[in-house]
């Protein structure tokens, strides 16, 4: 855990910490205790979104955010795209309406619903 002591960061109600950070009060003022992977006075910086694996997420059309439950950064690429962990950016990736697309080791992988199979990169009924 990283402490970021700053007076009045959390204001009077002590609830301004972001990304799952916990606000604390002591005689010096209010401060946030950040979850792993976040920093800043209010835990507003998601480290992997700034200078880590997801630094090109936004520039490639994605939204980089912090998953509080999993305590890590994620890049949400949106419909028809997936994150390529080799190129570290969102890329076109579509398997049709009956499948989810992933990019593994630079290759498109379709995970199709039951009763559907990957035929030439599109999930179709079998």
UniProtKB/TrEMBL annotation:
Query: InterPro entries, alphabetically?
Result: EGF
**Disulfide bridge map:** 34-43
The reply on keyword Amino-acid biosynthesis is: no
Query: Which SUPFAM superfamilies does this UniProt record tie to the protein?
Result: EGF/Laminin
**Could you tell me which residue ranges the EGF-like domain spans?**
11-44
Sorted UniProt keywords: Disulfide bond, EGF-like domain
Annotated protein name in UniProt? EGF-like domain-containing protein
Q: Which organism is it from?
A: Nephila pilipes
Gene name for this UniProt entry = AVEN_258683_1
